[in-house]
Amino acid sequence: xxxxxxxxxxxxxxxxxxxxxxxxxxxxxxxxxxxxxxxxxxxxxxxxxxxxxxxxxxxxxxxxxxxxxxxxxxxxxxxxxxxxxxxxxxxxxxxxxxxxxxxxxxxxxxxxxxxxxxxxxxxxxxxxxxxxxxxxxxxxxxxxxxxxxxxxxxxxxxxxxxxxxxxxxxxxxxxxxxxxxxxxxxxxxxxxxxxxxxxxxxxxxxxxxxxxxxxxxxxxxxxxxxxxxxxxxxxxxxxxxxxxxxxxxxxxxxxxxxxxxx
Length: 262
Description:
The chain is α+β, with helices and mostly antiparallel strands. It has helices spanning 11-23, 34-44, 60-69, 85-93, 106-126, 156-168, 175-183, 191-205; strands spanning 3-7, 27-31, 48-52, 76-80, 98-101, 130-133, 136-139, 144-147, 150-152, 173-174, 215-218, 222-225, 229-232, 239-240, 246-247, 258-259. The chain has 8 helices and 16 strands.
């Protein structure tokens, strides 16, 4: 049974959320403000956090930022009366997984909860704990990246993009797919947003971002990851090599399909 922690300061709304989620078969925990929510989330480690934005003591955006900084990996669904596009984009960029604007119906809430949890299960089943991209090592369980032993900072969106590429196992991930999974259904960024974040990600993990070895552009479609080495959590569908690690499919034979520019 999935555990969901609701952080909502309005008593009537909190009880309504608890009733709806409990009725759908989830185990529900709750907190009435951001500071209490932070402590309880870190202690309970729920499978999903349903988080109000406007709260006293510690608002939802600040709480989300702190959770991601501390390495909390479970999905976060924002609830708020603030429906402006800028607010939605801000919440998603801080590490939120979806954004639901009040007022909303119970059916929509439950559908979004199911969708977020499905995405999380698929991602965790397909992504190894650690991969190596040349001198860069990415630990998805700890949400840490290092180059030659020195820490490299990735934003939550950059981590999510890299995770999606790893999950694809060398297949092309389209820009629309990035927007749907990484930014969520309620954000309205353009495909150029994906390109901008990819350029930033390449600058952090590629030895030469102008001539990327790992994060390849597929002209007019999206991106693919090639030559990444799985150090643990190996998927048996990948081929083993003499060094005991598994590699993503080598797609160098399809170089003529790829645009080498960022």
